Amino acid sequence: MTELKKVQGPPAPARAPARGPAPADGASALLRLDDATVRFGGRAALDAVDLEVARHEIVCVLGPSGSGKSTLLRAVAGLQHLDGGRISLDGHDQRGVPAHRRGVGLMFQDHQLFPQRDVGGNVAFGLRVRGVDRREQAEHVRELLALVGLPGAERRAVSALSGGEQQRVALARALAPRPRLLMLDEPLGQLDRSLRERLVVELRQLFGELGTTVLAVTHDQGEAFALADRVVVMRDGRIAQSGTPLEVWQHPADAFVARFLGFDNVVEAKVAAAGDTADTPWGRLRLPAGPRQGAAPAGGARHLLVRPAGVRLADPSDAALTCTVTARTFRGTHVALHLRPRGDSPGIEAACALREAPEPGAEVGVTFDPAEIVVLGGDLAP
Amino acid sequence: MKSAPADASRRGGAARLVLMAGPVAFFGVFFAYPVVAIVRRGLYGDGGRRAGRILDVLGQPDVRHVLWFTVWQALASTALTLLVALPGAYVFARLDFPGKQVLRAVVTVPFVLPTVVAGTAFLALLGQGGLLDQLWGVRLDTTVWAILIAHVFFNYAVVVRTVGGLWAQLDPRQEEAARMLGASRFAAWRKVTLPALGPAVAAAALMVFLFTFTSFGVVQILGGPGYSTLEVEIYRQTAQIFDLSTAAALTIVQFAAVGLILAVHARTVRRRESALRLVDAAHTARRPRGAGQWGLLAGVLATIGLLLLLPLGVLVARSLDTPGGYGFAYYRALTSADGGTFLVPPIDAIGNSLRYAFAATAIALVIGSLAAAALTLPRPRTDSTGGTTSAGRLVRGLDALLMLPLGVSAVTVGFGFLITLDKPPLDLRSSWILVPLAQALVGVPFVVRTMLPVLRAVDGRLREAAAVLGASPLRVWREVDLPMVRRAMLIAAGFAFAVSLGEFGATVFIARPDRPTLPVAVARLLGRAGDLNYGQAMALSTVLMIVCAVALLVLERLRPAKASTGEF
């Protein structure tokens, strides 16, 4: 595990890119999906998905429910048969290989601990079916339980565990047979918020120490950004974007990804041929200088994202755009303001400091900071 | 590239076929073959011009009378059972009182009692020289009332367990939600609980109807000459009048009727599987509050006492009531062969019965487990439009088919055994295994019924979790399914055991004269005149009742706390 140089510690949502290993190239990919397709009836749950996961990489698949995330995991685990394409592990095509011979681990959303076995029996399960001798099993179980923070819990009944403890036991059970790839399905989905935030940090630390290759799915962007080296956003069975958390956060690929990440200020705009301004329902906006992101050509009809932090309040007489404050939401570090421009142009969300937040009903002028504006790719259909 | 899913469903289908092979072969050889053979012999036996025989038989006034009586007594029994048992279902589901667990077991005892014992008990209560006769000069045997009351006695538990089991798991908060929306207590019950219970009530009613429609022992013992169900008539035509063709025609009629009932039952059960919000039964019961609930509880307890316990008590009392005062004279008489009724002392019947019942239980467990496992194999995924695959239909068909032995005339099966299993390669006529084989036929449906809900309740992802951890399919079954169904299997074994012990209709044909089973011995003793024979019948019935009750009470302790909705 010495080749691993992961930085430990709590990752911030927008941390530096390339902290983990470089994105997979074909040679070092542990898991590789080519054109993987799964259909339920007429609907494609996985639609020609290409994906690679490198050794020791933590990849998080992010998407709304029904986007095909869980189907992706089940297909890799061998629990769901492919209707097309292929899945390779270590370069070997997995077609026809049953789930119990794939050597991957899967932690289920609701843990699925074996109710009739105690904690030790659950963790030892994978070792037992592989015929590991009892002493070795016990030794290994002891280590794993210590690792996940439940030392000495071997004889406890799983029904007596709290949600967080069950999650730890499920993790220890999945890790015990040393799977070459560990998959997590909504690993923290059922836990309460504070526990979730603590566990996600612990998980990342643990996977770093063990050098585990991880493919996780979640619908929670915070969880994905905190856990992953690389985030894959899925929509309707397809991959909408793939990149480091920072890349995805800073430059959402299209309007769908931007909205899924919680950005509401997404509007259609006409970008000038020079690429320095865009006409929007909110008026003509200046665009950030420098090279364009995305492969799409600069000019023409595009979607524009304005981050709430880029919406500046001004005196109504100084600004081209005047809005009415319709609501304010306290967000801890700042206040989210909902602004309604005159006319029927779409509403705007602005972030502003607690002390400066105007009352609902107040009239404010609005200007936009070009540094917080992103020209999005993708077609114009919202 | 397109072959992967096809491979998968083919693999699943193949596994299902392998598992089904045992049960299908068993039912083919020991059920379909004898039944078909005897029906063929009846219809075509003497000349082959008898295809229209069914219509001839149905045209006879006697037969029409039997048919009419069979249907109306079954309807009346069902209605009466629902009337008497539904309050019981409520009390067991929603009220909490000391001794409830024991009482629940006690209520189930009659269901597993041999019909012969029940018949005898009611004879002791309602018959000539019975308790009512002595007290008030009232005799109900040879009246239809005796039959109806005995049918309620038997099927009380069916309603209490099927309906009450579901009732206990219905979330009371749904009723509370309705009341918060302004519904009165009764309106909330009628609008929320009743519709949810409806399918369970229908399923229970159909089971009761099925059991009473094919009733044999009770009617044979309690019904006078005027009252004869189809099953009794088949027995009479076969064993006493030797009119095989009439018996065959009646068998077909009964078969068709039972098939219809089972088809309706399968539909109801499927509807019942529709998503209901179920909660742990342990949290829905409350201590009785108010005069209404206490009154209901008292009424139900009184009903159980009078209807279920009194007859059994009278039976025990009669067995001890000898001409020389209370004592064990009748029991002692069982040990001697002097009575002349048998070639062997009646007490030997206990050993025979136990031996046969153990063998029958083993057979039923193996066959029933295989069938249950085949029925729970993961089904090929249906598409999202809700279309059902042919495999799904196959499973449901099989499910219903396994129930058939409950409804097909046991008399026919027994007689069919005699005429088909008498030549090589299946010359079993003189083999002791013949009796357990016939008894296992009735046991299998109970095994399947008991194990299926438990197997289906095993979360499929638990199996997947085991597979991903490296367990092969066989290992998954051993590690995940088996520990969960172990208790269900024991319970199933108990039911199969009790049913085998009490089986009468088929056994009476095939048990050898020197190897009678308990019910056969009781029936023979009852068929003879004299106090000694009557007393011995009572004594032997008491022995049989105790064996069954003990078996059941042991099982009740094994029943998992979160019992399935108590299907029979």
Automatic annotation (TrEMBL), chain A:
GO terms for molecular function: ATP binding. Residues 1-26 are annotated as: Disordered. InterPro entries: AAA+_ATPase, ABC_SmlMolc_Importer, ABC_transporter-like_ATP-bd, ABC_transporter-like_CS, Mo/tungstate-bd_C_term_dom, P-loop_NTPase, Transp-assoc_OB_typ2. Keywords: ATP-binding, Nucleotide-binding, Transport. Residues 31-261 form the ABC transporter domain. SUPFAM superfamilies: MOP-like, P-loop containing nucleoside triphosphate hydrolases. Residues 15-24 have a biased composition (Low complexity). Pfam families: ABC_tran, TOBE_2. This is ABC transporter ATP-binding protein. It comes from Streptomyces beihaiensis.
